[in-house]
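Suppose a colleague, Dr. K., hands you the sequence of a protein chain of 171 amino acids and asks what its three-dimensional shape might be. Before reaching for any lab equipment, you can write down a predicted structure in token form. Begin with the sequence itself:
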Amino acid sequence: MIRHVIISHHGVNDCVTPDGSVKYDLRKEKQQMIDDIRSEVHSSFPETELRELFRLSTEELSRTVREISELTSGKQIGAKSFYWGMLLRLLLSLLIDTDRTVSACFAKNVEPEPIDPPTETFWYGLIKKLETHLSEKAIDTPIAQMRQEIPQQIRINYQRVLMIIQLLSGR
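The predicted structure, expressed as tokens, is then:
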């Protein structure tokens, strides 16, 4: 999944060609200057820092994968596909946003400004708006009933979300 996100962030790529070839293998063959890339990256980020960020990211993704697996255990394949698709889209969105922000800052010759993670007040304000919006909706279908649970789930999980944002922002 991570490999697909990295490869696709400049344009969505299918993982398999129509004739059945694995596109990642084709792309991997093109990476001939890996030592030059590695040396350029390590000139900006010490290897120990990168390894620690990788470890933390892997742990977070592993927890998310376990939670999706537990959440969708015994459910129809559509539910599983939805959660895996959402995770893939989230990862791709995060990488694209970061890549574009850094590229824009480079083009303007400015340093990217760190973004402060949203505060508890911010989250509760959004939750209140969502609750108000949902209170105006009918609760006549199973999906509508599930939507009503979203604000409570956000209240329970917002601390975790803040930790993820801090991890992603390198703080």
